[in-house]
Structures are given as C-alpha cells and as structure tokens.
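name: query_chain
kind: protein
chains: 1
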Amino acid sequence: MRNQIEVLDMLQTIDMELSELEEHISEYPKRISAYEEELEAYGEKLESLNSEKQELLKNKSSMELELTQNEETIKKSEEKLFEIKTHKEYEALQKEISETKRMNSELEDKLLEEMEKIENIESQISATNEELTGKKTDYEEKISGFKEKLEEVETLYGPKKEEKEKIVSKISPDILPIYEKIKKRNGEVLALAKNEVCTGCNMNIPPQLFNEVLTLSRIIQCPNCTKILYCEEELNSEAKTG
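structure:
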C-alpha cells in the first residue's frame, strides 16, 4: 500500500503540472486574441475616422464649388442690372441676387461647420495614431512572448500526458476511481496526517484510524475532507529501506 501511496503522490504531482499546463494552453490564446483584437480595433477606428474625414472633405468641396458658382451667378446678375429697361425686371433680378446671396451666407456657415468637423476628426485621427504607435510595439512584443510560451507548454504537454499514463498503469484499478472522485471534488487528493490531524482540513483524526494510516495497510480517507491520508515519516522510512 505504501507503494500505492507513493504512486498516488506522483500522480497528484503530475496532475497538478498538467492542470497548470492546461490552464496556460487555455489562457495564452485568450491573451493573444485580446491584444490582437485591441490592435484591430485601433485599425478599424482609424479606418472609420479616415472614411468620415473623406466624406467631410467631399462635402466641403461640393459646398465650395456651389459657393463659387453662386458668386459667378451674382456677378453676372449684377452686371445685367445695368442692361435692364423696366422696373419690374430690375426688382425681379434684385430679388434673385438677394436670394442667392442669402443662400451663400447659409452655405458659408455650413462650410465653417464642416471645416470644424474636419479639424476635429483630424485631431481624433492624430490622437488615435499616437495611441496606436504607443501600444503597437508593446502589444506585438507581448503577443510574440505569449506565442513562444504557448509553444513551450504545448511541447511539454504531450510527454507529460504519456508520463501520467505510465504512472496510472501502476495504480490498482480499485484505487484509481477513489483518486479521481476526490480529485474532482477537492482538487488535491492526498493529505498528510500528522499528530492525529489531517493537514488537508485541520480536523482531528480518530486515534484508531490514525494508527491505520501509520501502518498504511489500506487506503484511509479523512472522515471530514475525504482526502487520502498518508504519513510522511512512514513513506520516508519505506523509501530509505526500499
């Protein structure tokens, strides 16, 4: 039975190592994705801002063209005023000139608003570029680092699984289900029994039960936390005697 406890201890150790590797194998890709997604988000934001800027520039050009055309219309109309013979035609053309000037005044206000929008969006583009530049190198280094770590743990995982299978083959079929059940419930399976106390849950162990732990004649579970109890001194003694 001492040998079985030793093998269970080895199994628990390798299970903890595998659990840690599995945690890294699960966690590292998430971290890589998080950094990649943030960089992509910056790219998408810049693309959106640049697209918005292009639209604003297009509107601005259109307004400027309309302003110029209206100015030419006003100029031609004002020149025609000197050629008009009747008062009625004169008033109609004056009204047309006034209306065009009013439209241009509104256009100039809109053009100023559009130019402010362009200035604002250029400021956002500059700030976003600055943020991206500040983070890009740092994030790319982190992504590269996590990829290297992931490769390392994936390389270790396979041999560790094989090692576990060899250890499992040394455990009695009637003990392994007990181990798996406790592992599923508590995580840790073995607990050192010391001075009639289970160090897994710090509860007292009945004297008779503790004596059985000392002899290691069978698998003994803590009545409170159900972990498999072992006595370090006995195991060390067994190890020394072989």
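note: Helices lie at 2-80, 87-168, 176-186, 207-215, 232-241.
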